[in-house]
Design brief:
- With 411 residues, the protein is of the alpha+beta class.
- It has helices spanning 18-30, 37-49, 61-71, 89-96, 115-125, 159-169, 220-229, 238-243, 264-275, 277-294, 328-344, 360-366, 374-382, 394-410, and strands at residues 2-3, 6-7, 54-58, 78-83, 100-104, 126-129, 134-137, 143-147, 172-176, 184-185, 188-189, 196-200, 213-217, 301-302, 310-311, 317-321, 383-386.
- The strands form four sheets. Strands 3, 4, 5, 6, 7, 8, 9, 12 and 13 form a nine-stranded mixed β-sheet that branches.
- The longest helix has 18 residues, at 277-294.
- It is globular.
- The two termini are 26 Å apart.
- Mean pLDDT is 94; it is low at 1-5.
């Protein structure tokens, strides 16, 4: 890609064709641009792909997480364990409800929440209330209500082990699958472990609607509740109002709900994207394999790990830098110099994501120190996401790797 005579390789780029433009044009001509028939079609396409009984489109993955928590009755006086190494939206959604986000560490090889860290938190901070059969925090007296694993960068967390913990301690599980549409363990789609899971259609994800998210569930009870919550808890949808007699009457609103709807304009893009999802995932997987091969011999750079039986969607291609003999902060300085070197040569990179326990709000409210969650701290300081998207060329990938090697030598 060239821009103003300078080679530019973006971190990511949506994969659009004529179908997206045609779908949007049809919606605009119809005059129905709010949530309607296109949203319903998009929901059906994603539900079928993910083998889910119910799909509920919403305005973002963050709002999806918020509704999933509310559907489980989570609120003040309750705790939810989530990984620290995740986009801040994961923890923020918990805080929206008045519950407390309790942050756990990750496994350094997968970037996903470590079940051993969950166990350590439970054993250190909670006791079992035999009468109520719940975990109670030793100091705050909050009930530990749920676990919120994140399938980071498109790789599923260790769901079998997490589900074992949830069953043992009677905990709900809500899966933050923002990055992981299409991810699987032993052929089983993320979320097919009996939980509500939340996906994102942000432009950095494998398919996009600009902004947008979706909840997936096999529970009829949750499906109905989530559809109501996203639209002010109206007793009937806009589509049903306008396709039945007496649509001029306003519905009843028996509970407080939210305006978390997706528009038909967004869904029109999503419908076209959903139909090419498998092709996009295959292209991203091929590009990731190219990086795997091109980066062979880079002893200071650890490429993504995919455990046996796991299907990685490569929403991002995230590596870890490791320079022996240097402290974490010295390695961080070197990483940043390398990223600056790449930026100056038209190559966009990012740290994988941040460690939430190191962010101002969470550090200030809960008193975390950087080293409290050491693997999350290291990932925050040493991770690097390389450019990856469906139509990235092998030539551009070779250039990225060439500049990466040169940046290391010169930093």
């Amino acid at each position: 890609m060239e821009e103003y005579g300078k080679r530019i390789i973006p971190l990511t780029r949506p994969y659009f064709g004529q179908e997206e433009y045609q779908n949007v044009e049809q919606v605009l001509k119809s005059g129905w641009v709010a949530q309607g028939l296109r949203v319903a079609e998009f929901e059906q396409l994603i539900a079928a792909h993910e083998e889910s009984s119910y799909a509920i489109a919403v305005s973002s993955c963050t709002t999806a997480l918020h509704l999933a928590l509310l559907a489980h009755g989570i609120g003040p006086g309750m705790d939810v364990i989530a990984p620290s190494f995740t986009f801040v939206a994961t923890a923020n959604a918990i805080e929206y409800t008045g519950a407390t986000a309790v942050l756990a560490d990750i496994r350094p090889n997968t970037f996903n929440i470590d079940p051993d860290s969950i166990r350590a938190i439970i054993h250190k901070c909670y006791h079992w209330d035999q009468k109520r059969e719940i975990l109670v925090h030793n100091e705050t007296r909050n009930q530990l209500k749920a676990l919120m694993p994140v399938h980071q960068f498109g790789l599923c967390a260790d769901m079998p082990e997490i589900m074992n913990l949830a069953e043992k301690y009677h905990l709900a599980v809500i899966e933050d699958a923002a990055c992981a549409l299409g991810a699987r363990i032993e052929g089983v789609h993320q979320g097919k472990f009996g939980n509500i899971r939340c996906v994102s259609f942000h432009p950095r994800k494998c398919i996009t609607t600009g902004e947008g998210g979706m909840l997936l569930t096999d529970s009829e009870e949750f499906g109905k509740k989530l559809k109501a919550l996203r639209s002010h808890c109206a007793t009937q949808s806009e589509v049903s109002r306008h396709t039945k007699h007496m649509g001029f009457l306003m519905p009843e609103y028996p509970e407080v709900g939210y305006n978390y709807r997706m528009s038909d304009i967004q869904a029109a893009v999503g419908c076209a994207q959903a139909k090419k999802l498998d092709d996009i995932l295959e292209k991203r997987k091929k590009a990731a394999k190219n990086y795997d091969e091109l980066l062979t011999g880079f002893g200071w750079l650890k490429i993504p790990v995919v455990p046996e039986g796991y299907h990685h969607t490569y929403q991002s291609y995230v590596c870890m830098m490791d320079f022996s003999g240097l402290s974490i902060e010295k390695m961080n300085e070197k990483r940043n110099r390398i990223m600056t070197f790449l930026e100056e040569r038209g190559i966009q990179t990012r740290q994988g994501t941040h460690a939430v326990h190191m962010l101002g709000y969470y550090k200030g409210k809960y008193g975390y120190k950087d080293e409290d969650l050491i693997h999350s701290y290291r990932a925050d300081r040493l991770s690097i996401a390389l450019p990856l998207y469906a139509d990235i060329s092998l030539e551009d990938q070779k250039y990225v790797v060439e500049m990466l090697a040169e940046g290391n030598r010169k930093s």
